[in-house]
């Protein structure tokens, strides 16, 4: 697909979805002016960014991107991320199931897992019942940074909470884990200053959000 074809695809997707360029960039986790720069031929989107953007805009990816990516395969949904839901780890049983996914090389099926999203804690990005395709932290080429979407496991004693959060830099130069919701109950964030007996672990990077409306 040529640059001009990608630009046409992008313009049509923005018009169809009603997203502004800045909002689409924010949802994608890239600088607010990035998509504007793409349309000005000052920036390019990677194949992975194009695939994510197709999901955000609710449109099919460019056909050339589909052809370049690996055929669809099934990955396992290993748990549910729901803010405020603390489960006893000794009794935390989730009946896993599989969903179809596509990935861009060099990643392999064993590098990925999926999470079911529960509740409205990130409803400005994904809704209750949607899924997120996750790249395992140990398979990622780098550590976390500002703007990343990640799966966070927080524990207190024998209790565990699993959430999807966006990474944001704080004034002291550290990184915090935030929700993304229009519900004021989810204003709180996790900082690097943990309470006694509390642990936080990033399990992986959110590569793609899959709307429940597109699930078969």
TrEMBL record:
HTH cro/C1-type domain segment(s): 18-65
SUPFAM superfamilies in the cross-refs: lambda repressor-like DNA-binding domains (SSF47413), LexA/Signal peptidase (SSF51306)
State the InterPro entries in the record.
Answer: Cro/C1-type_HTH (IPR001387), Lambda_DNA-bd_dom_sf (IPR010982), LexA/Signal_pep-like_sf (IPR036286), Peptidase_S24_S26A/B/C (IPR015927)
**GO molecular-function terms, A-Z:** DNA binding
Which Pfam families does the protein's record reference? HTH_3, Peptidase_S24
What name does the UniProt record give this protein?
A: HTH cro/C1-type domain-containing protein
Question: Upper taxonomic classification of the species?
Answer: Bacteria, Pseudomonadati, Pseudomonadota, Alphaproteobacteria, Hyphomicrobiales
């Amino acid at each position: 697909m040529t640059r001009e074809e990608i630009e046409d695809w992008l313009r049509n997707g923005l018009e169809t979805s009603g997203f502004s360029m800045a909002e689409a960039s924010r949802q994608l986790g890239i600088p607010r002016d990035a998509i504007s720069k793409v349309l000005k031929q000052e920036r390019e989107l990677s194949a992975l960014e194009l695939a994510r953007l197709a999901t955000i805009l609710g449109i099919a990816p460019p056909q050339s991107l589909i052809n370049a990516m690996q055929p669809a395969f099934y990955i396992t949904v290993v748990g549910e991320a729901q803010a405020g839901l603390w489960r006893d780890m000794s009794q935390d049983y989730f009946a896993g199931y599989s969903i179809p996914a596509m990935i861009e090389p060099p990643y392999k099926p064993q590098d990925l897992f999926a999470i079911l999203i529960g509740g409205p804690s990130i409803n400005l990005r994904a809704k209750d019942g949607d899924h997120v395709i996750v790249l395992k932290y140990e398979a990622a080429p780098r550590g976390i940074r500002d703007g990343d979407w990640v799966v966070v496991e927080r524990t207190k004693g024998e209790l565990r909470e699993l959430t999807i959060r966006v990474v944001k830099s704080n004034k002291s130069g550290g990184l915090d884990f935030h929700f993304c919701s229009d519900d004021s109950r989810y204003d709180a964030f996790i900082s690097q200053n943990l309470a006694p007996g509390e642990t936080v672990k990033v399990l992986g990077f959110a590569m793609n959000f899959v709307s429940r409306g597109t699930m078969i």
